[in-house]
Design a protein that fits this description.
4 domains, four-stranded antiparallel β-sheet, five-stranded antiparallel β-sheet, Arc Repressor Mutant, subunit A, about 325 residues
Length: about 325
């Protein structure tokens, strides 16, 4: 049988793995009598741990929210995961958490066993943070929107769109998506009777929560797929449709989901759907893909490609004439 101190630590560790433990099950897991478990729970309460006990058929023990955060027990892999997350957060796109992330990382490393500290130091020396891409967002704004999503509360905020035009939006928030460069809020917009995506760095000031709303099924069945579609123009009328002479699996290695949506046609072809808003950039991108392609739409993209090919052919002809006369 474990010593009293070791058993208390074991109780804490188990309580942190579930939202609720049945009393008999927890006692059996610890291999102690239920009376011993009750004494251990009382001792932990005296030490400041907010443990709630309930009686009856579904009775048992659970952590409840307290006035302060109690110490957490982490195994090696959990501690390593937290250390990596804190290091990434310190150099991430959410402003206001850099210093607190570093403080937490220092505290965590101070209490790590030597074997684990070596692994953490190896990861830290190997991970080289790059310069931030895209604007930073306020941690308080992100937390407020996340809370509204969780509690299904309408949220209002001032918003500045891509053209710099300001407006006030009241929406039903569904979830947050991080694409690597930007954070997006996916929400139902009652004023437009449709789903919308909002870049969180364009939210001005603090969001304001309102009434509860009934949840809706996620658009496109998946928030990440919906945001990717919105970014690539799949949900808009201004869309390019191009058949690529390579399989979808092969092209996924070259084309990121944030740039285009790829649909398999057969083992050697796939359909690329992307925004046609920047035609000149799209022409350059297609010619740089090093793969044969057929443009289905829009017609103006075909014309831009024809002009570009004529320009390239003219340039090559001049180069050949210059080489012949040299």
């Amino acid at each position: 049988m474990l010593s009293s101190s070791s058993r208390l630590l074991r109780v804490l560790s188990l309580l942190q793995t579930r939202s609720h433990w049945a009393g008999p099950e927890l006692a059996e897991r610890l291999e102690v009598h239920p009376r011993t478990l009750r004494r251990d729970i009382d001792r932990l309460r005296e030490l400041g741990y907010p443990i709630h006990a309930s009686s009856g058929v579904a009775g048992g023990y659970a952590f409840r929210a307290g006035q302060s955060l109690p110490p957490l027990l982490l195994d090696d892999e959990e501690a390593l995961a937290v250390a990596i997350a804190l290091q990434i957060a310190a150099a991430g796109t959410v402003s206001g958490v850099e210093e607190s992330s570093l403080r937490a990382l220092v505290k965590l490393e101070q209490v790590m066993p030597t074997r684990l500290r070596r692994r953490t130091n190896a990861l830290r020396s190997a991970i080289v943070p790059v310069q931030r891409i895209g604007p930073t967002i306020d941690a308080g704004v992100l937390a407020s929107l996340a809370t509204a999503c969780r509690d299904q509360l309408q949220v209002g905020f001032s918003y500045r769109d891509l053209r710099g035009q300001a407006s006030v939006r009241t929406v039903e928030p569904h979830g947050l998506v991080h694409t690597g460069n930007h954070w997006y809020l996916v929400a139902w917009d009652p004023a437009r009777d449709d789903w919308r995506t909002f870049r969180i760095d364009r939210v001005q000031g603090a969001p304001r929560t309102g009434d509860h709303f009934a949840p809706r099924p996620a658009p496109a069945g998946d928030l990440r797929a919906y945001v990717t579609g919105a970014m690539t123009g799949v949900h808009q009328g201004d869309q390019a449709r191009v058949v690529l002479h390579r399989s979808r699996d092969v092209m996924l290695r070259t084309i990121p989901p944030s740039a285009a949506t790829l649909e398999a046609i057969d083992g050697e072809h796939c359909l690329m759907l992307c925004s046609a808003g920047q035609l000149d950039s799209l022409v350059y991108w297609l010619m740089a893909l090093d793969v044969d392609f057929d443009v289905l739409a829009p017609p103006v993209l075909k014309e831009r490609l024809r002009v570009a090919s004529e320009r390239v052919a003219s340039s090559l002809a001049r180069a050949e004439r210059s080489g012949a006369s040299a």
